[in-house]
Structure formats: C-alpha cells, structure tokens
C-alpha cells in the first residue's frame, strides 16, 4: 500500500476533519495528514520538506493560499501543491497555476474520488516536471561546461543563445555575441554564401572547416556543425564551433619538420654525389694545367675552376642550412635579444624610413638559447619584413608575450604579403620570390629555431601584410615572479 504524507493548511477544523475523512476512504493508499491551522506554523512544516503533497485553503487570514504557494516555491521548487477554494474563481485558479500549483479543488464539490484524482494527477505531473527539470539541468550543464562554442540560432542566422566557451573563444561579452549573426564570425565571403544556402534549404552541416575571426580580429580555424531541430515555423539551429587552430598549427609544424628532414637527407645524398665528380674535375684540371704550355688556355681553366668552386660553395651553403645546428645554450633576456637584433637591422629600416613599433609585456623572460644563432634567425625575418614594406609608410611591429612554459615573439608588417601558394613553400631551400635572392635565409631560420625546440607560424594576407609568430621554450621570468597568465589565453594579433 502506498504511503503519502500530506500537509493540510486550513484555519477551519471542520474542513480539516472532512478532508481527513475523504483521504481515509481512498483505497490502496495510506495518508499521513499533518494539519497546520496557522500560516506561520505551515511555513515551519514546509521548511522541513517532509511532505509529498501540500493542500492549501485559499482563505488563511491576513494572507491567503496564493501567498503561501509563492513562499513554498521559494523554499522548495518541487513542492506538489493543490489549492482549495470556496467556489470557482477562474482568476484565482489562473494565478495559482502560474505560481506553481498543480491543481485546484472547489470545497463544495469535494468527495473522495475527486480528491484521489487530484492527488494522483498532481503527483504524476510533478514527477514528470522533475524529470524534465533534471534533464534540462543535465543538458544545460553540458551546454555551459563544454569547451567548444555551442550556440543556438534562428533560420536567419541570428544568435539566440551561446555558452561560456563561445564568448571566451571569440572574445565577446554575452550580450555582444547575441547581437551577431553566424556569418559575422566567418572570414571568407564564400563561406558566408554557402552558409546562407544551407540555412535557406534547412540543411545540416557536419564538421565543415571554416576560418573565423574573433572580436580582436584574430583568425582561428574551426569545425562548424549545424543541426536543425524541426521543419516547422519555430525551428532553429543548434551549432558547434570546435576550435582546431592549435591542432592545425601542430600538424603544420610536424609536416614542416618531416619535410625539412626529408630535404636534409636528399641534400646530403645529392651533395655527396655532386662533390665526387667535382673532385674529379678539380684533379683533372690540376693535371691539365701542369701539362699546358700555352698561356692562352688559362682563361678557360680559370672559368672552369671558378664555377667548380661556386657549385661547391652552393652545396656547402645548402648543407649548412639544413644540417642540425649545434646549440651552445646560455641564459638570455628575450627583450635584450629583440632589441639587439633590431639594432642590427636599424640602418636598413632608416634608409626606407620605416616605423618600428615595440610592444613588449611588462614581464621579461629568460631564454636558454644560443644567442648568436637565434639572433641570426630573427634578423632574417626582420630583413624580409623591411624588404616587404613600402618606403615612408612601412610599419613593422615587434612584440612578446610571456606564458608559463614558453615565450611568444611576433614580427608583423604591413607589406605586400605572401600569396597562399607561395606560403606553403616559404621555408624550403632555394625557394624565393626575390630576383636576387637565394632562398636559404628562412630555411636556415627554421633550422636554428627547431634546434632550440621552438616553432614558427606564418599568417599572411596578400596585399596587406605578414605576421611571423615564434614560440620559444623559456626557463623562468627574470624577476622571479610567477607568470599569472593562463597557458590557453588568446594570442592577440593587431591588425
């Protein structure tokens, strides 16, 4: 037999006795009734949360049953409440329902059957509401604590809701984010056009790779997924934007390292195979010169010797740019490193009347590096930036950011930029876009940085400029203070 605990709040003892009688005549259920005839006594019982169902009379003296429903829901939102009224009053019934009552009963029409039906209906309805509320809490918890940007939008792309990760990743306040459309986050017009076609067709998207822009105009790479909830007029889209920028960066660096290793093996093999015949040519030339008696042939032997030496020098330069660099590490300040390297390129910058902006953080950090080598690597990038910008209007920005495990250095210019198909080959030996360049400078730069465990990323927009971002492992802040910045904080690129 089911046991149900009831709190009856009624200031009329006769009504209490009648209700107790109705409850006792209900089959298959046993009711333990607690009677409270004063409003304050009822609040004390409610605070204990010891009852399965609460039955309140509307008239309770200075306050009424609606007031008690309101206070009860403030104590226990899952309280199952039935309101008793003296006669039918639609306005009271509506208010009671809005405040959270499950049902209402008219005293003059009561009998055991109606009381049993109301209690059964109210308990079942509250059970369903509890399950729904728990489900909402669970999914809201997933929504709020996901590391991916999760959002809801209408069919026109207008944002309806977003989780905390979304505002963090894109750098917007919640109110700002909800004033956006999804295509405001996308960088390319082609992606915006495709998105419009998808939403117009009520289509779905699974892990579509898109370039997005944050509030600070930083480009990030995301996987976009969209699902429409239904096909009716109230349908909306649920979407996720999974940030894969770091994953793509690591993949690029791994690919670049593999490519450089393969190039190194190829160059060493080719160098060996080319130097062997060069040695034979030199030996034969020496023998030939010893046997020649006519000085008129010396012009030709000099040409041969000079070009053999030139080929040998090219091979040496190529091998040096790709062979593992021996590192003699010593502690060095990143700001001192940047300033001293900039001084080496100062004359070039002055000749073109270029502006150099230094954006350093207050914290300095100590690097364990081979200072001359890293200085050469940075100087190659500085010189490339100087050559890329226009006279008088050129601006080169140099800055650093300190993180717990690495120091980030960026060199940004407003020069000509690099075409996308050229960007893929940027660090390859002998690849150059300069008429008089050899294409070994950036290959040597990459080799030096990799020997220090550092990584380098390049972002460029043709016609607008280029940004080199270098991550160098650090030892510790030079002032001994712990760096408080979070490792996952956004690396902001000024545009």
Description:
With 495 residues, this protein is an alpha/beta fold. It folds into four domains: 2-143, Response regulator (Rossmann fold), CATH 3.40.50.2300; 146-244, Beta-Lactamase; 251-322; 330-477, 2-Layer Sandwich (Heat Shock Protein 90), CATH 3.30.565.10. Helix content is 45%, strand content 24%. It is built from 15 helices and 19 strands. Strands 13, 14, 15, 16, 17, 18 and 19 form a seven-stranded mixed β-sheet that branches. The chain has a five-stranded parallel β-sheet with strand order 2-1-3-6-7, sandwiched between helices. Helix 2 packs parallel to helix 3 (65-75), helix 3 packs parallel to helix 4 (90-99) and helix 11 (334-344) crosses helix 13. The protein is rod-shaped. The relative contact order is 0.06. Residues 476-495 have low confidence and may be disordered.
